[in-house]
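Write out this protein's structure.
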Amino acid sequence: MKDNNIISLKAPIENPLEALLKQGARELLHAAIEAEVGSLLGQYEYLTVAGKQAVVRNGYLPERTIQTGMGDIPVKVPKVRDRSKQGIKFNSQLVPPYLKRTQNLEEFIPWLYLKGISTGEMQPALEVLLGEGAKGLSANTVSRLKQGWEADYDRWRKRDLSNRRFVYIWADGVYCNVRMDDRLCLLVIIGSDETGRKEVLAVVDGYRESEASWTEVLEQLESQGLKIAPKLATGDGALGFWKALTKKWPQIKQQRCWVHKTANVLNKVPKAIKPKIKEALQDIWMAETRAAAHKAFANCVRRFEDKYPAAMKCLEKDKEAMLAFYDFPAVHWQHIRTSNPIESVFATVRLRTTRTKSCGSRKTTLSMAWKLMITAQNKWRRLRGYRLLADVIRGVEFKDGEEVKLDQLQETA
């Protein structure tokens, strides 16, 4: 007869596929670190002391674990001994001495924060996404990470830009809710340099997309050494940005974003007619020449202005600015017609859609958004046809996306 009613339960069985992946990750990491130390030893192979090789293996550092998306991965980093007393050491590039977690694990933190997850809720949320490998990310750890990113942001916004040249810029205002009674507008500028690489130029705390706020952003870039105006700016129809830009850099050409314009036009028509108008708008910005675009423009207005005058008035408002891209290389059109470089970063994260009374601050939200953008920046591709940026900088004239040759210019004259 049993003297208790305790039922013995089996321990949970680890998923065989996950176990296999973790084992493969351990072996791959071990092999990569061994290759690193082998490369160092090979570099000093001919360095000797008293007839003996000067740089030799000397066991391992104590085993430690690194938090990854697949859970904790144990790692042992080799040590080397330098008999020549030159201070030669082995530091793995894959596993630096103080690495505790992989970067992609930390990328979840700003993403979750901007989704409205507070510091105290962060660990349970990460455990759902990443499993038990996220257990080390306590509320205190997350708070320290956030403080570090705030300091990183402060250093970043003061970096020197005096030796940089940007050809195209994209600007937009991204709104978010910080507290119940506090609404924040992040003013964002992304630039493409002469090599076609895109990078975040400014992420600034603004209360609204006003001329004064955008002027402050442009003045900050100037104070960092950005003196030469870009050739083209792309943004939505927010008047504040364009007013500030015209005063600060009057020579810059302006391109209105077709994604924003399309959304604004379609918001003024019934749902049933939206596909037809969207197709008509596409005929405009997909036209091969400015003349063809003007023709498609006129056709769209003629077809729909009687029934939907407000939508067509919205379309005609920025007509010439909508077609500025025709003065630049055709291979760049897909990049400069819209402000997608900014929109794509926040496409899956509309910042802090959940309002709370206790969590969140303006500075933390700002640094989290910056961290998210800097992380995304590392994955951005260069502009197609980036070699033509040198021609744009030199002031080469383009018509309908093609370079205007000297003989054509003489004929026009």
